[in-house]
Amino acid sequence: MQGNHFTISYHTAGTLAANHTFTFTVPFACTLVAVSAVASNASSGILDVGTSSDTDLYVSNMDVGDSNVPALYDEAGDFESDVYPHIAAGTVVEAELDYDGAGGTAAQNFTLVLTFEEG
Q1: Which pLDDT belongs to residue 3?
Q2: Assigned domain for 91 exists
């Protein structure tokens, strides 16, 4: 934890052969302030971040970064509704990776980092 910020990270090694969903529950109220996603290759990966009932509520159709250069959403306008999403305690958060977009190149060695602000 850095001040009142904390991160949740996920990594999948190798060349992906299917979509991936990463799910967790936030233990207290927080705000999503940054999403960083990358594949080690020039992939067609697409990321959505939301809740278990609305999987693209916070981020929709984010192109993941390529060739080890992460894509970064860290401004209010990057998120759906153009605001940093406030998330209630107990919310089930889901990040869904479409590993090859619309049938393009599969992501390899995918890494996701979500940064939250407590409160």
Answers
A1: 81
A2: yes
